[in-house]
Amino acid sequence: RIEEIKIQKELVNQLKSQRDALTSSIDKAQKIQKQGETNINTLSEALVQRERDYQNAKINYDEGIISEDALLSAKLAYTGAKNALEVGKLQIETASDDINALMSQREAISHQIASAEGKLDILISGADEKDKTIAQSNADAATLESEIAEYQKNKFAVKSYVNGIVESVNYETGEFVNA
């Protein structure tokens, strides 16, 4: 029993360590999400600026003020800003999904901890009064069933009240005999 208690305590400690690790991972993912949200604002402002630059570059190119290379450079900067914003949004979405998954895992482990601690309490304290009462009721019922079976066996057995030798048996086991 001592070994069972030791094993159960170790299980509880392992589960708590897993829960703590998940909590730490959740905190990190939330920080990443918050940083990503801050970056989204910066990336959105950069996209607006790059789009404006690109629109100006198209006008300047059409008027012959800048070269085609300058126009393509502005378009590339605009496309890069647009892609960076999309990537940032996807990172936030991924972080949010990760947070939800980690929180679900943490909740499941919390339930496992409660169950393991309950089992540990039972191992340490032994059976509670309800368990003892149920066990005693089951033992009493089994004793009563045994007595009933013995009574029925004796009631339905054919007995002779005189000593002697049985010369023949006219009935098989299980057949009813009328007295």
Structure description:
The model has no long low-confidence stretch (mean pLDDT 84). This protein has 179 residues and is an all-alpha fold. The chain has helices at 2-62, 68-125, 129-156.
Average pLDDT works out at 84
- Tertiary shape: rod-shaped
Beta-strand proportion: under 5%
How would a textbook summarize the main sheet?
none
State the helicity in percent bands: over 70%
- Provide the structure class: mainly alpha
Features:
mainly alpha; 179 residues
Write a brief caption for the model.
This protein has 3 helices and no strands. It is an all-alpha fold and 179 residues long.
SSE layout:
Layout: H1 2-62, H2 68-125, H3 129-156
Helix pairs in contact: 1-2
